[in-house]
Specification:
7 strands, 18% strand
Length: 147
């Protein structure tokens, strides 16, 4: 774990090489440490190890603040709930957090979600549509009812 100003001074050979190795070590470890690097750059990564659970952060475009990305010790940075034990469930949100839940859609909800009404809403689980054009050509009616 190391941090470096990521700017190399003019210096004799061995000192330059040591400084370069320290800068590369900081890059390789995402500038990990308990404090902030002495010099920061827009979009610079940082592994903040000051808390019990480390946080991966990135510097914003204006170089004025760190933006929290997630927990580097968790799968998917802890941004998506674990999939273990959730076979047959769908990822849902309540507007605040993500969670796994059972999908129960009625044909009206399917129409609202997809923007068109399938010919046979009962067999929607076998339908795969990637765009409105392919939906019409695959035999689905648009929400206006035309085929």
């Amino acid at each position: 774990m190391s941090q470096h100003k990521l700017s190399l001074n003019n210096q004799p050979g061995n000192a330059f090489r040591a400084d370069l190795n320290n800068a590369l070590g900081a890059l390789a470890s995402n500038s990990s440490g308990t404090g902030d690097p002495s010099i920061t750059y827009p979009f610079q990564w940082k592994a903040d190890t000051s808390a019990t659970s480390p946080r991966l952060k990135i510097r914003n475009a204006a170089n004025t603040a760190w933006v929290d990305v997630g927990d580097p010790t968790m799968p998917g940075l802890g941004l998506i709930p674990a999939q273990t034990g959730n076979t047959g469930k769908v990822l849902m949100t309540d507007g605040t957090s993500l969670f796994w839940g059972a999908a129960t859609l009625t044909s009206g909800a399917i129409t609202s979600a997809l923007g068109f009404t399938p010919y046979n809403a009962a067999s929607i689980s076998s339908a795969h549509v990637s765009s409105a054009d392919s939906a019409t050509s695959a035999g689905y009616a648009t929400s206006a009812g035309s085929a």
